[in-house]
Specification:
Six copies of one chain form a homohexamer. Helices cover 34% and strands 23% of the residues of chain A. Chain A has ten helices and 15 strands. In chain A, the strands form three sheets. In chain A, strands 1, 4, 9, 10, 11, 12, 13, 14 and 15 form a nine-stranded mixed β-sheet that branches. Chain A has a four-stranded mixed β-sheet with strand order 3-2-7-8.
Amino acid sequence: MPTVVTFGEIMMRLATPGHNRFAQASHLEVTFGGGEANVAAALALSGIDAAFVTRLPQNDWGDRAIATLRGQGVDTSRIIRGDGRMGVYFLEHGAGPRASRVIYDRADSAISHIAEGDVDWSSVFAGVKWFHWTGITPALGDAAAAAVTAACKAAKSAGCTISVDLNFRKNLWTREKAQAVMTDLMPFVDVCIGNEEDAETVFSIKGADVETGSIDRNRYIDVGRQLSDRFQFKAVAITLRESISASRNGWSAMLYAQNQAYFSERYDIDIVDRVGSGDSFAAGMIYAQLQAFDPQRAVAWATAAAALKHTIPGDLNFVSPTEIARLVEGDASGRVQR
Amino acid sequence: MPTVVTFGEIMMRLATPGHNRFAQASHLEVTFGGGEANVAAALALSGIDAAFVTRLPQNDWGDRAIATLRGQGVDTSRIIRGDGRMGVYFLEHGAGPRASRVIYDRADSAISHIAEGDVDWSSVFAGVKWFHWTGITPALGDAAAAAVTAACKAAKSAGCTISVDLNFRKNLWTREKAQAVMTDLMPFVDVCIGNEEDAETVFSIKGADVETGSIDRNRYIDVGRQLSDRFQFKAVAITLRESISASRNGWSAMLYAQNQAYFSERYDIDIVDRVGSGDSFAAGMIYAQLQAFDPQRAVAWATAAAALKHTIPGDLNFVSPTEIARLVEGDASGRVQR
Amino acid sequence: MPTVVTFGEIMMRLATPGHNRFAQASHLEVTFGGGEANVAAALALSGIDAAFVTRLPQNDWGDRAIATLRGQGVDTSRIIRGDGRMGVYFLEHGAGPRASRVIYDRADSAISHIAEGDVDWSSVFAGVKWFHWTGITPALGDAAAAAVTAACKAAKSAGCTISVDLNFRKNLWTREKAQAVMTDLMPFVDVCIGNEEDAETVFSIKGADVETGSIDRNRYIDVGRQLSDRFQFKAVAITLRESISASRNGWSAMLYAQNQAYFSERYDIDIVDRVGSGDSFAAGMIYAQLQAFDPQRAVAWATAAAALKHTIPGDLNFVSPTEIARLVEGDASGRVQR
Amino acid sequence: MPTVVTFGEIMMRLATPGHNRFAQASHLEVTFGGGEANVAAALALSGIDAAFVTRLPQNDWGDRAIATLRGQGVDTSRIIRGDGRMGVYFLEHGAGPRASRVIYDRADSAISHIAEGDVDWSSVFAGVKWFHWTGITPALGDAAAAAVTAACKAAKSAGCTISVDLNFRKNLWTREKAQAVMTDLMPFVDVCIGNEEDAETVFSIKGADVETGSIDRNRYIDVGRQLSDRFQFKAVAITLRESISASRNGWSAMLYAQNQAYFSERYDIDIVDRVGSGDSFAAGMIYAQLQAFDPQRAVAWATAAAALKHTIPGDLNFVSPTEIARLVEGDASGRVQR
Amino acid sequence: MPTVVTFGEIMMRLATPGHNRFAQASHLEVTFGGGEANVAAALALSGIDAAFVTRLPQNDWGDRAIATLRGQGVDTSRIIRGDGRMGVYFLEHGAGPRASRVIYDRADSAISHIAEGDVDWSSVFAGVKWFHWTGITPALGDAAAAAVTAACKAAKSAGCTISVDLNFRKNLWTREKAQAVMTDLMPFVDVCIGNEEDAETVFSIKGADVETGSIDRNRYIDVGRQLSDRFQFKAVAITLRESISASRNGWSAMLYAQNQAYFSERYDIDIVDRVGSGDSFAAGMIYAQLQAFDPQRAVAWATAAAALKHTIPGDLNFVSPTEIARLVEGDASGRVQR
Amino acid sequence: MPTVVTFGEIMMRLATPGHNRFAQASHLEVTFGGGEANVAAALALSGIDAAFVTRLPQNDWGDRAIATLRGQGVDTSRIIRGDGRMGVYFLEHGAGPRASRVIYDRADSAISHIAEGDVDWSSVFAGVKWFHWTGITPALGDAAAAAVTAACKAAKSAGCTISVDLNFRKNLWTREKAQAVMTDLMPFVDVCIGNEEDAETVFSIKGADVETGSIDRNRYIDVGRQLSDRFQFKAVAITLRESISASRNGWSAMLYAQNQAYFSERYDIDIVDRVGSGDSFAAGMIYAQLQAFDPQRAVAWATAAAALKHTIPGDLNFVSPTEIARLVEGDASGRVQR
């Protein structure tokens, strides 16, 4: 019986090696990932029973996506198989002033063919405590959006806490469509995760700079408050990325809960692979809630988990709770562990 | 002004390294290929002015497909760009009793969106001597089939010799559809290339074993004769592959022209990569005709060119006319050339 | 509830790339394997519920061994963790007259520390139909041998069929020790798998050439008969490898059951990686019994499964029942599957 | 008809992977590059018709150098072939306080054998607008220097703008020889590109610090003014590299035109591969002139183009005008482009 | 006749490529290294005759460890061979806040079986000027500790200067055991190398902050003074690492000799591979003494040598004295050396 | 004091990976080799004290060539350093009917600059028993040829046995030049190694087919006899390669000594890398003479050593006497050695 269920698309990720551009790469590195799958894997790697639900094609790549997740301990028994293709995304790692690039090739993938009744949501959520999804899933098409709604209803009935990562993707849907669909889904949601830009794009919520002084903090607090007020979220987590360059980022986060804001440590990060760091944050936040961490430790934990993800190739966050805890305790020295 | 024009789809080829299966490969090797593109490249590598026509997406992979061909000397100036995705095929190399496998992921690729008028065929064929296409192109959809028809008409008007490689692909269309479409296109064709199986699948032509003795040869001759008689081909080339295993093949061919059959040498081949060998044969046959080789040398040349292709990774046949000629002259010893 | 349980050691396999010797390799390819683990994985890849039992160190390599098996669908929930190191084997691929080489570095590995009571064998075998082990496990030390005995007893009580692969390893124990230990364990065994050399080394059973004519076959039949008679095996399977060179082998097998011998097809194999092929044979034989194949099809199936394994890098047999069936039906042509 | 022609040597570049030293590398990465070839490729990648003229050996490496450039759209039809060897340069990437190292192995390369009349310069420059060369070409020997002179004369007759990148190479010629040869060639030049050190080495021009305050800027301005005054250049571009370490550089530039100095943004760069960045700057400057950018945008463009080059492996600058423009507009954040 | 002899263990080093974690790496990079072997290799690469003494298994990995050292010029003729296994260490490179990790698998390695009389120490040290060992060797077990004592006695008799690198390894022995064994060995030692943490762990020596002002420096000086006073060392070298993250370190050192402290330059380092940097420091210090550098140049030299090591993959410091000297002279710019 | 000295050129070998052509390879594998260096390394790997003499450039590649040989135990102390470049050869592995190709880039290499007196030959040969060289060395130019003469004289004075491998290289000199130079050198030679083609090219000696029956054998015997008679060789070894394809060769040899011919076993070989196999044969023959094997065992040993070399990447023959002996005893089965 899983503790957490996530639902979304897992894609084949084909990344150029090192800092090669698409124009140069003699080969592409094969891994698998996707927002909700990454969250399930991160939770499983932290020792939480997590299941991932999706629809995959009946071919070798579908098999391998499952093998990847199952290998890391994710319960894949609820995944359904069918027609459609394997979603693919191509990734080119940036450096310095050159941005990383993603070419999505996910149109007509198996999950976009999901039909009502394909998944028996009520049995999926039996005994489950937490359901997580992201704004990418309803963006995959009306069928996928309908499935998210059905899942949310079933999860709510089963007494799950529901979290969402807003994750607006402009190449999947328009801002207007996103606003309409996401607004309808928010009543199911207890914990909302996103960044300032998502809040504005999807909900037209912009932070006001209420006082002078610690300006930025107040703006984020304001975003958290507005989101909480509008959708009655129990908690809102905002990630605060400072994009200095493709090689270096500042990274921190805020958790707004019970009318109070909690800010994490800020990390200066030399980036190895930042794809999936947001998902690691979400997983860290879910982990923290399941462990009943207080809000300050919760935001510290999720932020540290995601800081570590920036240093690991691939979508998945191969870190242990021990490693996260060490960073939360303040050891960011990177000394060799023998 | 190119001497030869080919038209079809070029795909991104993602192959597992060594003999790894899809389930195992940590990376995929990136090259580009497709029947007609392979023919154009082989001709360019033999010093013939060759142009390739297709429709490619407006993204990095489309750019790179062009760069690949242009690098080898193919004229890519007639390629058009537009919407749709890059066709992809995944390749896993077999060995011994384990077959090589291909997973096609080419549905909805840019060429399937080709529209009437996208290509100005009469200007494409101005001054051109030879037009080559394969049975894969019309199988890509009605739009592509219409484009083949339009191209054939324009090529015929321009006085081109037209060759086809039958290349039936069961996952692209049904036998019935292939029969209907291909039968309509044959009147344009002068030189028909295929194997015994294609002849039967696409035209229901089966070789009869007319005499005892050198049985097989007679059966192939009969196929050649029937094809020639039915469609008034100037020449029919039949490739004769003996699949001993995924690692070893016997390889030879027959050319049927002016009511006579010419058989090539038979090669025992240790296979490195057999994908694209049929295309190398077609290119060799076109080269032989352009060089006005006699039929015996023509079939020897095309067979030798394709024998060499089996030893080269990727779709493209990186061999020089000098190397083909050496093999035609009988040196298959593989001695180190210092 | 698994259908099959296997028990033994899984090691980290570090293989030189290509045909590099240990003296040359700049890197080593990391996979995991071991006789009984390979059998469990092959069964899981064929759709059988299979569990693997072992004792692994509490470190990253132990975690990864588990991830490897779990990814392929093996039930790893019965694996115990503890002190001791990860067993390692280094592999160098031979070619032609140069033999492949293995350097074992498995002394003092975690499984050699297994203690009575570490595994609750009766709960392990609840509901299980088949138990498989090999002669390697008891050779790992007295503790491991005791665990095999305990496992056999519990399996017998649970009504399991028990199979053994004799697999004598001269660097793990002496012939005398093997004879003593294995003879004591044979009463539990229903199905015995091995080759002629194992039979002689472990049980001093040598085939007599009873008649002239098809000499070899009779010798193998005699080995099968002697083994069956001595230990009351329900079936004896003898693999017949002809080592032509490190690159090429002849491969076939005999199944002796109910006083009758059944011989498989003989395959000429170009070898990619022959390590684990015996395990694939054992898995194929177990699969065949579980599917209630008749003896002729059973030996054909197991031999074909193992023939395919020779073409796949690593210890694990990444093939599907569909692929095995195609080879059993006689298609060893290796034609490209599109 | 190309818009730009460049003339020089293209070499085979053999680089150690990652940060391996020559003493360690198990393999070397093969690409091709050289000052003027890099400029031609960068222009072609920006959509400018560019041709590269050189003399290459009649072997596979000569063929491949051509294929590399032709693939990126460079017109290679003016390249001549002949005796002599392929120039090679070996590259080892530095890091931190350890410098990158280059071992040149270009003596006796094909271009050093270039003879008067090998290239028909007047036909080369027919219809061409811009000719670019660097101080490396005349340093390759008297024959090459004579060819540069002949090329300059023909380009001038054809009405081309001529640019030079000073690029002093101490292992190719002495300072005295460089001064003599380069001074004779400067009357042909309209646009001079270099750094402060080149100006001093080749022309004994040293910047004076005329005022206190913004000291450095004034010194560079003084260098620009002196160069302009002495050789009547229409424009002088000075690149300003701050070598903090092999991993990090400050990067900016100054353009001095019509008695005025324009300074670019300064970039802090995490270096992936800085070889060829000067050539990217030159190409950006030529592009800017052809697009008639004003001086401020011109220096911004060239500097941004070169900043991006530092992040791309190999000599060639695989960037699009869109990417350069984004950086010129100020987005150096490196955010993932999806 | 070597000038320097070192004694200790050399291990097989198996490192994940790039920044892959143990959980991800498809292959491991094979090199060899160990504290005292690294010192011998660094000295040989600097042109000093250096011999390494150890005990290695009689297998291919033992052979290769020898080949590695011999290739770099180390005299390996005193190495003895025997039973036991090859010590292995697995390395995973960290980045940013994620620490590098080492999994040692060296228990029961050949050197731990070293017996009295295996090495004829008096002949080993005939004509030798310097003996170096580290705190790792006596930690390998009582036999190894006894061998260190025997070696020290023989070296002293032969008139050698003896240096030690304290190098406490908590997974090899306890602090108490280390204190006892190391304290007994110190009377043989002339030059002691370590860091502040080693001094405290092994000798309970903690630096006092005697004055305000340049606080840290005084603390280190105090450690140097205490060590010198207690053990009558001729010189104490303390390395001062600031672990900002796994990607960046500050690096400097202090040499305390004749009651005076000498501090080196401080380097900001972008780390490629920091394993073995301490050994490079020790080798640089020995080199400096053999060259009779004054204390200020000695600490500058050793610190620069080690700074360069941080940029080189593997345990060995592939740098030349020329390169070290250039950095000592102040050129840390990393400009390309052509 | 070495037992064997060889003299010649060692080159940097840059080979395409797998079966890639020069046109395709993204990287080249770096090793070092050359006829006489390969012989020295093979002897050192067999436990014979062997020294290699050459002249190498004073750069990193020269250092690395030395490190390669020294690592395998070759005495490199007699190698001299100086101006000139590192000789390079590019290698592309053939397959099936496609030949392997070598592009030499060795003109003007350091050894071609060798001057009289650079090597003190009389001290080189003090205490040495055997001197080996090949027909490549005098072909490198008059200076190298003079050095061979000087070396032969000194070796003779020192009482060495002298062996030559004829090794005619048509791209280094003409047949006429070779005949003149080699004929002058033969009086120094005791043991002559070559193939039938070399004998004809260099000495115009052709085997007569004296009787019918075992025709070929008699022809080779006749070549051996003629060579022996003409130059008073103590032994003549003729290698007999049957080039079936680039993937498969038949391999055997004949030793003609004391008027009698001894033929080896014939091996059918699946080729991994056949470059250097002739050198392995020569080394095996020298080894056999030093061990005083009888002629039949001598030819068996040398042929087996070379058969094994065909299976090993690179120029060097990484095999042990144990492995050669096993093959000589008849075990060519390639069974896994555990």
